[in-house]
């Protein structure tokens, strides 16, 4: 699975907005400069984020964008969904059809499908506030069955 720039850049831009937005509306040009993202690409992403209700635009002098809700209430999964970045690691195009030519699911389908669910759950458990306050590292840690068996 490879996460496209669409999802990564949307989360980067939203984290920047969350960090800098306390000072007032933030322009896309400022975000583009700080995060080294194309301004035209950000405009496309923010149109989707605005339609999803994650950001609000402020017009006029001193205008820009603000978060529509608090950083602690904005989940990373919401951002990914807003910019249409699916977290699907199976090779199946449609759930009704399997990934094999016969229409059956491949032997590892359930493995990759469950991994996709774990990724989504992880992203749903992380807010922009967590990201900007660097509270993400270590969240995926868990006791390894191999380590427990060795003890």
UniProtKB/TrEMBL annotation:
Superkingdom of origin: Bacteria
PROSITE patterns membership: HTH_RRF2_1, HTH_RRF2_2
Annotated PANTHER family: HTH-TYPE TRANSCRIPTIONAL REGULATOR ISCR (PTHR33221:SF5), WINGED HELIX-TURN-HELIX TRANSCRIPTIONAL REGULATOR, RRF2 FAMILY (PTHR33221)
UniProt name for this protein: Rrf2 family transcriptional regulator
Keywords: DNA-binding
Pfam families on file: Rrf2
Organism whose genome encodes this protein: Alkalicaulis satelles
GO CC aspect terms: cytosol
Coiled-coil regions listed in the entry: none
SUPFAM superfamilies: Winged helix' DNA-binding domain
GO MF annotation terms: DNA binding; DNA-binding transcription factor activity
